[in-house]
């Protein structure tokens, strides 16, 4: 991409005779002959407006060789004795003939006092406006609400020790008599293979078996997805696309009232919308059928249930049940202590124990130390 380089000439204003817009090539005012000096008004150049989009200067570029040579002479220097501006390639001041020393602009900057103290803010300015204060109160409320819920949750599961007493004991025992009995079930033909049953001995070693597979009928087993043609789906999308070029300019100050401007053409990008179309497979549910049959097998069935219970010191015992050798027995037992604890308000809660041995260690009326959560769950009791 080709570069276009131009030299743009700045202008300055004479503070002695008030002439405006003097081209930078004049180091002296063409009207009053005063040299350009290091003052706020004279030391800065004006380069006019630039195009907002490209940054290109609206001024014509310099073309004559003499001025172009001046632009390449380096940054101007200001005489430390008389303050006049001089060409960068000159060693003696054109005004007072003094030798070039350190630049007066640099000296001026050195002589500047340190950072000026900031003006104190007006009274009352440090007070915050009422809005953030309201937000702070709201935020605080929200914080305590959520945090409070969390704290409450933790508090509910935390434990504390209380004096307490066993106010009751209770046990319950159940015997379940089960018999391996013939049943008719249904199953999918491909999952059934004939097998003889085996009867249990002392409630063990049985096999259910599969016998007499019969009455098979076609039945819906489920469904599967099958492709059902395609359909065309289009979506509007956007993409970036090169769409021609645009000019971009950068400038570099040469420190002597001239600027070098470099313009080049760069690729411009635009958003382009397009239709993205593709074929998508459509699916439909198709029922799946299989053959379902009846068959004979065996299952454990409850034939009798006996329950005994007792409380407050009555010793636990099993119910009586006459059992044949092919039957099996299931035993269920439940042991509960009723505990009252806490002062001044008394709470009551049950405590389940796992074994008879544990249960028999406690007696009604016994004083205990209770470890319970604030939520009312008893975690542990100890004799007191
Ligand atoms: Zn002048
Ligand atoms: Zn001088």
UniProtKB/TrEMBL annotation:
It comes from the Bacteria. Signal peptide: none annotated. Residues 108-130 are annotated as: Disordered. The chain crosses the membrane at residues 134-155. The keyword Membrane applies. The keyword Zinc-finger applies. Residues 72-102 form the RanBP2-type domain. Keywords: Membrane, Metal-binding, Transmembrane, Transmembrane helix, Zinc, Zinc-finger. This is RanBP2-type domain-containing protein. It comes from Stigmatella aurantiaca.
């Amino acid at each position: 991409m080709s570069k276009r380089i131009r030299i743009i000439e700045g202008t300055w204003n004479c503070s002695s005779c008030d002439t405006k817009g003097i081209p930078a090539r004049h180091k002296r005012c063409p009207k009053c002959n005063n040299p350009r000096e290091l003052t706020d008004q004279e030391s800065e150049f004006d380069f006019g407006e630039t195009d907002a989009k490209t940054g290109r200067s609206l001024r014509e570029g310099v073309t004559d060789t003499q001025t172009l040579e001046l632009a390449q002479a380096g940054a101007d220097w200001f005489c430390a004795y008389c303050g006049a501006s001089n060409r960068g390639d000159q060693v003696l001041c054109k005004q007072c003939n003094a030798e070039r020393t350190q630049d007066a602009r640099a000296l001026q900057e050195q002589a500047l006092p340190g950072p000026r103290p900031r003006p104190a803010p007006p009274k009352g300015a440090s007070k915050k406006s009422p809005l953030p204060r309201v937000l702070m109160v709201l935020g605080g409320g929200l914080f305590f609400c959520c945090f409070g819920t969390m704290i409450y949750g933790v508090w509910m599961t935390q434990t504390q020790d209380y004096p307490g007493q066993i106010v009751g004991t209770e046990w319950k025992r159940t015997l379940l008599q089960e018999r391996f009995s013939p049943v008719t079930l249904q199953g999918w033909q491909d999952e059934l293979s004939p097998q003889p049953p085996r009867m249990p001995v002392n409630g063990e070693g049985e096999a259910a078996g599969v016998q007499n597979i019969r009455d098979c009928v076609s039945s819906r087993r489920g469904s599967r997805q099958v492709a059902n043609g395609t359909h065309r789906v289009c979506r509007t999308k956007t993409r970036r696309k090169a769409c021609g070029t645009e000019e971009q300019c950068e400038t570099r100050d040469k420190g002597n009232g001239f600027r070098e401007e470099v313009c080049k053409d760069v690729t411009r990008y635009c958003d382009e919308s397009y239709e993205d179309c593709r074929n998508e497979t459509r699916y439909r549910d198709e029922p799946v059928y299989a053959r379902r049959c009846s068959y004979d097998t065996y299952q454990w069935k409850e034939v009798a249930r006996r329950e005994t219970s007792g409380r407050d010191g009555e010793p636990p015992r099993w119910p009586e049940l006459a059992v044949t050798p092919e039957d099996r027995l299931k035993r269920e037992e439940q042991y509960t202590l009723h505990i009252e604890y806490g002062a001044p308000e008394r709470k009551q809660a049950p405590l389940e124990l796992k074994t008879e041995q544990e249960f028999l260690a406690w007696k009604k009326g016994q004083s205990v130390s209770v470890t319970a959560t604030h939520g009312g769950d008893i975690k542990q009791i100890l004799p007191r």
